[in-house]
């Protein structure tokens, strides 16, 4: 985790920029982790103390198979979420991607689409990945539309793989190849 000195804007878009997490972001990660809507969309059911989350954040930021970045609104420098490339496999040139916006008031503003686009550009361009994949729950229609707009294709369904809020839900597996992404751009 970087210190709170100079802000390193790793990737910049029109509305958002992506930067490494800083120590001061821990409270935001913790708040987001317990937001009921965020928990539902991410299928999160476990609990974590602030100290445990701090340890997790420290570990993740030093893990070479992951790239976790905060999504920051350019207008007011407010962290609106996070996006992460994880399980990066240099041999197969593949990775998983995930995103979480902090609060439902951030939905529908284009933050997620732009942040995903910046991370995909970075993954396929700078990191020379061949494939990026993700999983999304069948009830997260907004995310599915966003992922399809970015070029992800449905590759499979893990039927009733998530038990959440008293019901089973399908997990949709989606993938995107570098050549498909470049063609779409």
Provide tags for this entry.
185 residues, alpha+beta, Aminopeptidase, eight-stranded mixed sheet, 6 helices, 32% helix, globular
Secondary-structure topology with pairs:
Blueprint: E1 11-12, E2 16-19, H1 26-33, H2 36-42, H3 50-61, E3 67-73, E4 78-89, E5 94-101, H4 111-126, E6 131-137, H5 141-149, E7 153-164, E8 167-177, H6 178-184
Parallel strand pairs: 5-6
Antiparallel strand pairs: 1-2, 2-3, 3-4, 4-5, 6-8, 7-8
Helix pairs in contact: 1-3
Keywords: Transferase
GO molecular function: acyltransferase activity, transferring groups other than amino-acyl groups
InterPro entries: Acyl_CoA_acyltransferase (IPR016181), GNAT_dom (IPR000182)
Q: TL;DR of this structure?
A:
By secondary structure, the protein is α+β, with helices and mostly antiparallel strands. It contains 6 helices and 8 strands; from the N terminus they run ββαααβββαβαββα. It has one domain (11-184): Aminopeptidase (3-Layer(aba) Sandwich).
What does this protein structure show overall?
The protein is α+β, with helices and mostly antiparallel strands and 185 residues long. The chain has one domain (11-184): 3-Layer(aba) Sandwich (Aminopeptidase), CATH 3.40.630.30. It is built from six helices and eight strands. Strands 1-2-3-4-5-6-8-7 form an eight-stranded mixed beta sheet, with helices on both faces. A hairpin with a 4-residue loop joins β3 (67-73) and β4 (78-89). The model has no long low-confidence stretch (mean pLDDT 90). Residues 16-179 form the N-acetyltransferase domain. It comes from Kroppenstedtia eburnea. GO terms for molecular function: acyltransferase activity, transferring groups other than amino-acyl groups.
């Amino acid at each position: 985790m970087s210190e709170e000195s100079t802000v390193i804007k790793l990737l910049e878009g029109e509305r958002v920029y992506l930067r490494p997490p800083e120590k001061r972001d821990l409270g935001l990660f913790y708040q987001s982790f317990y937001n009921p809507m965020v928990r539902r969309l991410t299928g999160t059911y476990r609990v974590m103390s602030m100290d445990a989350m701090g340890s997790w954040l420290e570990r993740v930021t030093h893990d070479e198979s992951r790239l976790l970045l905060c999504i920051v609104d350019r207008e007011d420098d407010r962290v609106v979420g996070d996006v992460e490339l994880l399980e990066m496999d240099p041999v197969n040139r593949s990775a998983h991607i995930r995103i979480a916006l902090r609060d439902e008031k951030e939905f529908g503003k284009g933050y997620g689409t732009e942040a995903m686009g910046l991370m995909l550009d970075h993954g396929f361009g700078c990191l020379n990945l061949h494939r990026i994949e993700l999983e999304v729950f069948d009830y997260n229609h907004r995310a599915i539309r966003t992922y399809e707009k970015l070029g992800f294709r449905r590759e499979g369904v893990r039927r009733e793989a998530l038990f959440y809020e008293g019901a089973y839900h399908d997990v949709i597996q989606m993938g995107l190849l570098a050549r498909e992404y470049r063609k779409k751009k």
